[in-house]
Design goal:
Elements: E1 3-7, E2 10-17, E3 23-28, H1 42-48, E4 50-55, H2 73-84, E5 90-95, H3 99-108, E6 114-120, H4 141-153, H5 158-173, H6 175-185, H7 188-194, H8 197-211, H9 228-237, E7 254-259, H10 267-276, E8 281-285, H11 297-307, E9 319-322, E10 328-331, E11 334-337, H12 349-352, E12 355-358, H13 378-381
Parallel strand pairs: 3-4, 3-5, 5-6, 6-7, 7-8
Antiparallel strand pairs: 1-2, 2-4, 9-10, 11-12
Length: 383
Amino acid sequence: MVKTVPYGGRTIAYETWGDPDAHPVFLLHGTPGSRLGPRLRTFDLHKLGVRLIAYDRPGYGGSSRHPKRRVVDAAEDINAIAEALDLKKYSVVGRSGGAPHALACAARNLGSQVASVAALVSLAPPNADDDGLDWHRGMSESNVSTYDLLDRHAPDVTELGALLARNAETIRRDPTLFLAALRDEMPSVDRVIVEDAGIRRLLLVNYLSAVGRAEQGAGATVDPRAPMGWVDDLVAFRSPWGFDLKAIDRSVPVMLWHGEHDVFAPVAHFRWLARKIPSAKAVLQPSAAHFAALPALPQVLAWVRDQAGLTTTAVTPPAVAETGDGRTNWLTTLKHSQAHHGQAQPGSRRSDRVRLQVETAEVPLLEGQHPGVLPADALAQRG
C-alpha cells in the first residue's frame, strides 16, 4: 500500500514489501521510472530476508516535484523515509538512473545508517569528461541526441521538456511503443530479457506509472505536459552531483555492477567509476548489457544483505572469481537452450530464439515473471 512522508515542503510516496522485521533495502528505480518498477515477488523477499522499500523520485508518480534537485538530494529523501519507518540501518540498491542516487547515499551516509550499497549499470558524473572519459561514446543514438539537446540549451529545459512531453504522451497512449523504440537500440542480449512476458509487463507498468500524471513545469516556458521527474533526472545527471566520489565512506561496502555491452550506460562509465571508488567491488559481466540488471536483483539483494552483517538465507550468490585485471566476476553456469513454451515450428522466430537458463536449484523471480521463462541469468550476464 502506498504511503507518503512530508519532507522539505514536499510529499514523497513510497511502498514496502516483504517481512517488516527483515533487513530493509531501498530499491531506486531507473529513468523514467517509479516505485512500481521491477522487483522481486513478496514470497522471495521473505525467503531472502529482505524488506524492500521503493519510492517515487520527486516529480514521478505520487511524489511532488523538487525543482533544481541534485543527485545528492536523494540521500535526504531516503533518510526521511527511513526515519518515518524508524529504521536504524538500511541498504540501498540503485539500478540505471537510480544508481548515481545510490552512490550519493554511500557518500553522505546520513546518521551512519547506510549499511551497504549497490549501483547497477550506472552513469558516471559529467565531470568525468574532464578526467579521461568520453561521456557520450558508446551510447545509443537516442541517448546521445537527448543529452546533446540538454547540453546545448542548458540551463533552459524548454526543448528537453517538449521532447520528453512527446515521449510521455506516447507512453500514456501505448507504453509498448516506447519499449519497442528502446528495443530497436538494444543489443540482442537485452532483447532476450525484455521478451520475457513478466519482465515486459513490469517495465510497461513502470513507464506508465512514471508519466501517468503530468507534472507541471515551473513557469510557462516548460511544456505543461512535460514529465518533470524525467526532465529533472536528466538535468541532475548532467549537472554536478553534489558529492565527491572520494567521500564514499570505506566502511560502507559498495558494489558496482555492469554489463559489458551496455548501450544506455556504456561500460567505460563503469570502468571510470571503478577507478574512482577503489574500495568498491567491481563486477563486470561479459556478454551482458543494460537490462541484465533486472534478473540480477536477487543476488545483488543477497549481497547487500550479507554485507550489512546478516546471515545468508535461501539464496546464495554465485561464486566469485578474480578476473585478469584484479576485479571480480560472478560465475554462473549457463545453459544455451531453444526451449520455449509450447511447440513452435522449426525455423520460426520463436524457435530460433535462444534463451539463457540458469542451472541452479532455485532462483527467485521478479514480481509477475512466469517461473517457466527464466531470462538470461543476467546475473552473470547482464548489467
